[in-house]
User: Fold this.
Amino acid sequence: MAQYKQIEESFYSNISESLNGYNLSRKWFNFRYDNPHKCKAVHSELFLYIVDVWNRLGQKDVFGLPTLNTMELLNIGSRNTYYKVLKDLEDFGFIKTIKESKNQYQSRIIAISKNEQASKQALDQALIQASEQTPEHIDKQRNKETKNNIISFEEFWNIYDKKVDKVKCKKKFSKLTEKELTQIKETIKQYIKVNDNKKYRKNPLTYLNGKCWEDEIEEKPKPTAASVKYLNYTQ
Assistant:
């Protein structure tokens, strides 16, 4: 018992009296932001649950963490996984094991640790920059990103190159979604290439009303030697 008390006093000689749930959660997410390759969701769930237990028990210096109850609550199916995550949290500097549990039916005696590994500046700066982005700024950025992926009416009108019913076409065009405008941009040149004879090409309004950009574009068969010979013979 004396040895247990000595370990406890030695450990808590380095812990600040200002330790609380708010500061612990901030320290955890600062650490996670700095170490995304080390941290998984299960680490967050387990540590925040430990903090919750610590708060419910009156922020005791040391307290028991029941293995089976914790695993069941957090839906951790493997004891190996559970013990590994606990060890990770200890290696990260967030908890300290005071006494191991002898089996899964006993509680592990642990203590909350003050973690000094994470810098608050990186996450704080990222959050400040994100909060400074106004809706107008975000919309402008989104518009800039999508501008190159969609087709304008004038671009469509010139590429399609069958100048019929422009007013009606423009009205129909204005009702198309960004997804549809992107699809048109991706397919219209191939459509024109296949339907190269403007005389037999669909009117642009028919193309828009029929959503012809969704149609399968069939390549024209290449002329065979026999067909070329026949054409030359008939000319």
Summary: The chain has a mean pLDDT of 81. The chain has two domains: 2-125, 149-234. Residues 149-234 form one domain. The radius of gyration is 34 Å.
